[in-house]
Amino acid sequence: MTTLAPRAGRRCHNSVNPLHSTVYFSPDLDKELAGVGIDDPRAAYFAGRGAAMGAVGPGVIAAAFYNFSYDLVARHVPAVWRAASPEAVLDARLRAVDSTLRRVLGEEAVASDEMAEAARLALRATEACDRHARPLYAAHADLPVPEQPHLAYWHAATLLREHRGDGHLAALLSAGLDPVEALVSHTATGKGMSPRWVLGTRGWHRTDWDAAAGRLRERGLLDEAGELTGAGTALRAELEEHTDRLDSAPYEHLGADGVERLTELARGFLMAAAGAGAFPDDLIGKG
């Protein structure tokens, strides 16, 4: 029997997760990874997010990340590990997190009681995360928790992000959506990345996008204008509900009061980061 209000866990995740993502939009990550020999931004992303799994090959990265073209990944992996070891990448990433959060939140927020409280709550939620069939979560769960509260909060946000993300991939597979179909249908909701961002960062081509849209139309999920049909809207809603079910344990463990408080704190940090320009203006949308 759930103790939480409907979608409370999802709302909490949606408030916590973006602060984790700030480092991947930050020039600090590119700078730190360039300092250890990785000076290509795409290679930096694959290394920065994948290093917790060790010096894995392109197949593992493509499988775990799901929505990137294997060909794009293979242009950078495993070559990236010859430039820097996974351990050096993880150290550089944490330095980038530190400087990024200090810049977008400010020193006062980083050192605040609220940050320490958010870290405690988020880490408590992670106590109920499950490693089974969740490779990115499991790899990050093996990393030590940083001592400083803002870094501990980012670490916990990472665990919660990857735990939900790994579950979401299972939901996508269950729904029969391949990587590009998943991207096209998510963009059609108005809440996903814009086509420009997808095509510019995920290694797919316009022909891949158009072919995926055609397959979605054949299934009755997308109309001729590229909008979701009723069936498509229902499928995307069920995907999120399925993901919620697979990701309920951390938030049930934290409890209703803890989830409400963590959501409140996380939203405050998120608004501050967004106001400081932590995210691209054109990241989300259908255009």
Structure write-up:
The relative contact order is 0.16. The longest helix has 27 residues, at 149-175. The radius of gyration is 19 Å and the shape is globular. The termini are far apart. By secondary structure, the chain is mainly α. The chain has helices at residues 8-21, 27-35, 41-50, 58-65, 70-74, 79-83, 86-105, 107-110, 113-126, 135-141, 149-175, 179-188, 195-201, 206-218, 230-246, 249-275. The mean pLDDT is 96. It is built from 16 helices and no strands. Helix 1 crosses helix 16, helix 2 runs antiparallel to helix 7 and helix 12 packs across helix 14 (206-218).
Short description:
With 287 residues, the protein is an all-alpha fold. The protein contains 16 helices and no strands.
Secondary structure layout plus pairing:
Elements lengths: L7 H14 L5 H9 L5 H10 L7 H8 L4 H5 L4 H5 L2 H20 L1 H4 L2 H14 L8 H7 L7 H27 L3 H10 L6 H7 L4 H13 L11 H17 L2 H27 L12
